[in-house]
Structures are given as structure tokens and as C-alpha cells.
Amino acid sequence: MVSFSNITPAASMAIQMDPLMIAIKTYRDALDEYSKAIEGKDDWIGDSGCDALYNDLFEGPFAALANWQSPASSDEVALAAIALADFEKAVSDGSAVSDAMEAAAIGYWKTAGDSPSKPQAAAEATPRVSLKDVTPDMFLTAPEAAAYLRISPITLAAWRSAKRGPVYIKTGGRVLYRVAALLDYASKNERRGTRPDE
Questions:
Q1: Helix boundaries (H) for 112-152
Q2: Under 8 Å CB-to-CB from 134, ≥6 apart: which residues?
Q3: Please, are residues 104 and 68 in contact by the beta-carbon 8 Å criterion?
């Protein structure tokens, strides 16, 4: 689940008021309530009472997410959608919810660069990483690491969400990458050609 502890109160309020974030939270709350209700009732699994409770709690929230057709409205909401999609795939080998949440996140990330609501200062603040000043023990922010790898920050965020890409640390609410980890990741992904060695 996405943590709001590092977001300012105004930003947190805006994210929590987002319709997709509300739908995701409602679904996760229903999941928590269901888990608490059946905890310790192993003999109840498969019982019609268990199925009825599941339907009562999930029918509306599941349908809202499974039928979601709009892109997410921000990076935070897109990451929450991807996290839910990953969860759904882990517990049930995917579902209509996981497909819809992936589509919402991808829809946002495809159009994020073209968004007129994107602050101009953020667009102009493209990090410039000078390779001559970088040492292996140095830490780079996520945008700097993305620039270092010559990928978009959105791609790097998607890798983090999918538990792929270079290792990172999170401190003080910031994601940081050690240059040595970026170099290690790059060297592990070097290839001599497109065909596997024989």
C-alpha cells in the first residue's frame, strides 16, 4: 500500500481526494475487513457464509476498479495503481482489477510529459549529472540516477514498483541510488548481441 507519511498535508489531501485513490483505498479496506473477519476460521473457507461476506465487501469496490477506464492523475496515484496490480497478480494470478490498474498507470505515464498541468519549473529542472564528478560511493537522487542511466524517471519508478532495476535505498522519504549500484546494474545487463551465446 502506498504510504502518505512523506507527503505534505496539502498534497496528501489532494491525493486522497483523487477518485482512483479513493477506489483503491476502499478496495484495500474491504480486503483488510475480510481478512479480519475470516481470521482463525479455517473451517469457514468455502462455506456459503464466507462467500456471502466476500460478495458483500467486494462487489462494489471490485467492480469500480475492474471497470476503471481513466488514466491515473499523478505519479503517486499511478504507483498506487501499479502496487495494487502487483498485489492482485501475486494473490490470484491477475484479475480484471490488475489489468485495469496497469492500464490506468500506463495511461498516466504515457501522457505525463504532455500534461499542461505539469509545473514548468519541474520540466525545466532536468538533472545534469557530470560523469567526471561522480564517484562509486556517491548517492544520486532518482531523477539523477535516471539521467545517469539515460532512461526516464518514470521508467525508473516503474522498475522500483516492479522490484526490478538497480538496488536503491530510501531515507528521509527520498529514493537514492549509489553510483556503484548503477554501474553494477549496467554491467550485469551488458550484451554482445541480441542472440544468446551458444
A1: 120-124, 142-149
A2: 140, 148, 179
A3: yes
Q: What cell was used for 76?
A: 503517486
> What's the CA gap between 142 and 171, in Å, rounded?
12
Q: Interior CA angle at 157 toward 155 and 129, to 5°?
A: 75
The alpha carbon of 60 is separated from its chain's Cα centroid by a whole number of angstroms, namely 23
- Chain-centroid distance of CA 55 in Å reads 27
At 38-69, the pLDDT tens digits run 666 655 455 555 566 666 666 777 788 888 89
Indicate yes or no: pTM above 0.70: no
Q: What number of other Cβ atoms are within 10 A of residue 62's Cβ?
A: 20
140 with 129: CB under 8 angstroms?
yes
